[in-house]
Known about the structure:
Elements: H1 2-25, H2 28-42, H3 44-54, H4 59-87, H5 93-104, H6 117-141, H7 145-173, H8 180-203, H9 221-235, H10 240-245
Helix pairs in contact: 2-4, 2-8, 3-4, 4-7, 5-8, 6-7, 6-8, 6-9
Amino acid sequence: MQATATITANQREPNEQARVRALVRFNGMTFHSLATASFLETAAPLHVNRLVQVFGPHPDVGTWLEQVWWPQRAEIGRQLREYVEATWPEFDWIAAYHEFYDSYRPRSGLERRDTGIALEALGLCVTSAQAALFYRALANSADDPVLRALARRAACCHAGGFDYFRVLFERCRLIKRPGFAATWRTVIEASRCARDHDVASAFQVLGRNWNGAPTVPGMGFSEYRERMVQSIQRHAALGPVELLLFRPWLERGRAAPAQPPPAAGPNRWLPAMPQSV
């Protein structure tokens, strides 16, 4: 009896794995999210090269970016790419990435104004927090346990990046304190840039690089953005700080001028992320 039960359990496990993988394979939101994320993680060196120059007065920051942040992002990108290629072999990841890279590289932050290193660190806080939020929602909603584990690792990586850049922001603003209006404007601009430039640039090449008919339904970026917001609201349990940093994503239709929140205390404008990964 025990041997029969063991055989039955062993047979059930591959069937369950196949069922879960099928759910992922035909999920358009999951495909577009993972492929977009894999491009942005893989393209991290474009930002590292620029940031090392920006934080030149702080050589320890350049060392951390090159020896910690960059390798972590590269590893996440590699794992995401492998998952995408294994789940959607009809999708030409290499061709799509090259198309994305060619359009993204000239505008990957190089055109930003010289706003000072404190606000640069703050912008990195925003993008790290948003990435951690995205991966946390994915980890809480994914059907595939392999994907859930991958998303949790990515969320932890970006949450660690947020902690580092938050401390760096506090350190840099002791040297030259930015005004509150400039600080708030940086938060909004960094969030909108991540939405309208980074994510949109990666998203727009996905429908053009299939070998044959796509296995997932097509969708426009506006639809994707709406559904992503709904997913994050449902699965990520936004805290007060995250609501602030994610605020531009919640804008519907034409973006309205963002009103700054009440001023925080003088010693700590940006608190730590309250939500655990």
